[in-house]
Amino acid sequence: MLPLNGPQREAVVAQTVDLGNASIPVGIDGAHHNMIRKVYKDGFITAYGRIMQLSAGLAFLGGLMGFLFIRKRPATA
């Protein structure tokens, strides 16, 4: 937990919607810059990893559905 007061915390949280493009709000002292930058980076990496896991799961399910439901039709002359 970062030692921030109410307005500082709100400013930091407001930047989280930008994920990888989040910037440290004005008014945050230098001692907290590195901690906030790390929190932004870790949050972005976590979100990106979850999206990749979800994408991989959906790709696997799509392949499984294709394997189960697409049948080879007999050749007709």
How is this structure best summarized?
The protein has 77 residues and is mainly α.
Set out the fold topology.
Elements: H1 6-15, H2 30-69
Strand composition percent: under 5%
Question: Based on helices, strands and strand pairing, what is the structural class?
Answer: mainly alpha
Annotation, overall tally of beta strands: 0
Q: Report the biggest beta sheet as strand number plus sense, adding barrel if it closes.
A: none
What coarse outline follows from CA principal-axis ratios?
rod-shaped
The residue-averaged pLDDT reads 85
What pattern of helices and strands is seen along the backbone?
HH
For the record, give the distance between the C-alpha atoms at the N and C termini, rounded to a whole number: 72 Å
